[in-house]
Each structure stands twice: as C-alpha cells, then as structure tokens.
From TrEMBL:
GO molecular function ontology, one term from the record: carboxy-lyase activity
Protein name from the UniProt record: NAD-dependent epimerase/dehydratase domain-containing protein
Keywords from the named record: NAD
Higher taxonomy: Eukaryota, Viridiplantae, Streptophyta, Embryophyta, Tracheophyta
Organism per entry: Salvia splendens
Domain of life according to the entry: Eukaryota
InterPro entries in the cross-refs: Arna-like_SDR_e, Epimerase_deHydtase, Lipid_A_modif_metabolic_enz, NAD(P)-bd_dom_sf
One Pfam family recorded for the sequence: Epimerase
Residue ranges occupied by any NAD-dependent epimerase/dehydratase domain in the UniProt entry: 73-342
C-alpha cells in the first residue's frame, strides 16, 4: 500500500492524530514499513523507519507513565551553545524531529551531514528571526517552539544596549505572537539575570543577616526583580528579559498560550562562547569561563573583575539539557511554570573559579601553572562605563524538583575538567600558532 493511500485511509477513519500525519508528511524520505494494529488507532503501536535510531525502538514514557509521542520542534538559536547540545540529545536519545533555526550552523554541522543517521530528523533553516517572513511558517509546522535566541554576553549589555534590548525583547515579540495565534506551545529561555540584585546586597556589610542564605536565595514565584539605576546600562539585558517574560505570562493568562520559561544559572560546558581571535572576534569579551579559558590557553594571568568577589553557581550543560528534555516531554507538568535551572551546590566566588580552572587546566594540559595566575582589573576597565553587577545568585530548586523531579549531578571540578579538556584539545594548537612570533630569516 502506498504512503499516500495509507494516509487517506487513516484520515478517513477519523482516528489519525495530527502529530503522526505531520511526521509522515514532513519526513517524506522515510520508507514506511509497517504498522501493527488490529484497527486504526490515533497513535500507531509500532512503526519502523529506515535509518532510525536503535534507541527509538524502546518505548519512552513521561513522568506519569504515558507513552511519549514524537513531535516536531522549531528550535530558534539551534546553532548556539545550548541549542547544539539540545539538538544532539534530541537526535541521539529521542525520536523527536527538529527544525533548527539560526544564522550559523557550525556547532551542529556534524548532525546535518548527509551521511548522518539523523539527517532525516533535523533540518537547518538559515534565517534571522527579526526580518524573515518564513518564521511563522516554521512555527506552524511544529508542535513546540523553543526560543534560545539572545545577546547574552555581559560585555555587550552596556556597550551595545540598543542591540541587547532589541535582540532580547523586540526580536522575540513575533515568536510569542506566532505561538499564541497558532496555538503552539512555547519554551522560552530567559536568564538568572532577571532577578537583578539580591535583597542581601542591600544589607550592611557587617550585618549578621548576611549569613542567612534566605536573603540571597532566588525563588521563581517570590523573589523581587531589583535592578540598578537607568544609567547603569548593564541592566538593559535583564530588563528586556523580564519584560518578555511578563508578555509571555500575560499571553498565557489572557489568550491561553501554553508556555514554560527557563531561567539558566550559568550553564557550562564544551562549545560555550568562543576564543577571541580563533573562532570569534579578536576584541570580543565572552562570558567568564571562555574568558578564563582564553587566558589559560595564551598563558596569560586570568583577569578578575573588581577582585573576583562576586559569587556564582555553575551547572554542567549535560545536566541542564536533561532538565529541558523533561520540560519538553512533560507538558502537563511544565506548562505555565518558570523554572530555575542551576546547581546551588557548585557555588564559588569568581576568584575561586579562576583558581580551580588554573589547577584543572594544568592537569589536563600537562603545562605548569603560571607564576602570576590572576590579576585584578576594574569593571570600568574591563567592561566599560555603565557596568554594574549582583553580588550573589543562588537558585532555589524547589519548583523544578517538585514538578519534574530534576536535580543536577555533576560537581564543579568534574564539569571544569570536561570543559577544559575540550578547550585544550580544540584550541591549544590554534592559539599557539596565532601567538607564535615569526622567526627572523
């Protein structure tokens, strides 16, 4: 029986699920083999495809024991750090399909190769969401949209505030609009920066209340969002992210948009950001881990902004991706919720992070540690005018643990070892060539 005839018969039965029909139409290169069923049902009990992942043969269930149906996901920002890891997991561990949307695909090229076993389940669409009419069509084709697109490097917040606001608020508006108008579920990536400064930051330096972690604990449904003055343009990012969160929440309340908001707390791992002058701009300033990696690769002292006294928590990208998968596959538990995704057990000052990275890099590279491992610089010198910061960010994990049962597993040492091993293997030779002085003839 031809695939077209099969679809018509299933449609005529009135029992064909929309999701299954779209999977047949979208992946037209698959060869249909068989459906085992004594009658037409909404979801085929068994179906097999050419070149399918062997792991798909085992039925996967959600947290409530229900069978997980393969869906199509429109992933905006699929070519970035988080997107590339999420695409990998979806291809390797699930039967879901991905419409990968981005302006670059360098970090997911290995998934897009014609010889890849996942080539029929992932399509790359090169477009910029702020000026491309194709976006709505892609969102309509999918069951779920995940929006990862953002400007999210602190150096840009006060040096490129307009771009930061446009990227994180204005450019995200069509995504929210199309999802709401077309009744499509949305998982939107926000930021832990949404919280701004902690209540504890306003306590006197000698106050005993500073020893109480509750003044620094950040809760999705309770903590206020406290930003600095307008002239401190570093808060342009957090403010734009807060406003798009409020818009999404309002769309849910007034128009029934099914949404989940993710607030990442410093996700760390391979492929994060770039190394200036190697696979990014020479004058660029990536986030702290990539900054320190760049210093280590070049055997330069690690630069500590304002002494590196700010405290942060770090979570391994692979742990964090597992949390996102739970959100994708458990919509009944995730819809309408905002989730902190971090690891409160991996809390250190930025200075302590620099010291740990220096030790770990010496181990994985076999190189001796620097005589002067760190150097203090002012935030004005490093980031420019208008920089401000929060002193401490600790995620409360109550909601995500209750709704999805998720807890991070990887220690700070282990995630640094994995990441720095990748950084050394990927960049060491390129940096050495870029920094070597030409030999005089």
């Amino acid at each position: 029986m031809s695939r077209r005839v099969m679809i018509r018969r299933l449609e005529a039965s009135g029992a064909l699920a929309t999701g299954y029909l779209s999977s047949l139409l979208f992946f037209s290169s698959f060869k249909y083999i068989r459906i085992f069923s004594s009658k037409f049902i909404s979801i085929p009990q068994i179906y097999e495809f050419r070149d399918s992942n062997p792991k798909m043969a085992t039925a996967r269930v959600d947290l409530d024991g229900n069978a997980i149906k393969p869906i199509t996901i429109c992933m905006i920002g699929a070519g970035g750090f988080i997107g590339s890891h999420l695409c990998e997991y979806l291809m390797e561990e699930t039967a879901h399909r991905v419409l990968a949307v981005d302006v670059y695909n360098d970090k997911i090229k290995h998934l897009l190769e014609p010889t890849s076993q996942w080539g029929d389940r992932i399509q790359f669409h090169r477009l910029n969401i702020k000026n491309d009419s194709r976006l709505e069509g892609l969102i309509r084709m999918a069951h779920l949209t995940i929006n990862l697109a953002a400007i999210c490097t602190p150096a840009d917040y006060n040096t490129r505030p307009l771009d930061t606001i446009y990227s994180n608020f204005i450019d995200a508006l069509p995504v929210v609009k199309y999802c709401s108008e077309n009744n499509k579920r949305l998982i939107h990536f926000s930021t832990c920066e949404i919280y701004g400064k902690t209540i504890g930051a306003f306590l006197p330096k000698d106050s005993p209340l500073r020893q109480d972690p509750n003044y620094f604990l950040l809760k999705e449904d309770e903590s206020p969002c406290i930003f600095g003055p307008i002239e401190k343009q570093r808060w342009s990012y957090a403010c734009a992210k807060q406003l798009i969160e409020r818009l999404i929440y309002a769309e849910g309340a007034e128009n029934g948009l099914e949404f989940t908001i993710v607030r990442p707390f410093n996700w760390i791992g391979p492929r994060m950001d770039f190394i200036p002058g190697i696979d990014g701009p020479s004058e660029g300033v990536p986030r702290v881990l990539a900054c320190f990696s760049n210093n280590l690769l070049r055997r330069e002292p690690l630069k500590l902004v304002d002494g590196g006294q700010s405290q942060r928590t770090f979570v391994y990208i692979k742990d964090a991706i597992e949390a996102v998968i739970l959100m994708i596959e458990n919509p009944a538990r995730a819809n309408g919720h905002i989730f902190n995704v971090g690891n409160p057990n991996n809390e250190v000052t930025v200075r302590q992070l620099a010291e740990m990275m220096t030790q770990v890099y010496a181990k994985v590279s076999g190189e001796s540690s620097l005589d002067t491992p760190t150097v203090d610089v002012s935030s004005k010198e490093f980031y420019g005018e208008g920089y401000d910061d929060s002193d401490k960010r600790i995620p409360d994990m109550t909601i995500i643990n209750k709704q999805l049962g998720w807890n991070p597993k990887t220690s700070l040492f282990d995630l640094l070892e994995s990441t720095l091993t990748y950084q050394h293997r990927t960049y060491a030779e390129a940096v050495k060539k870029a920094t070597s002085k030409p030999v005089a003839s």
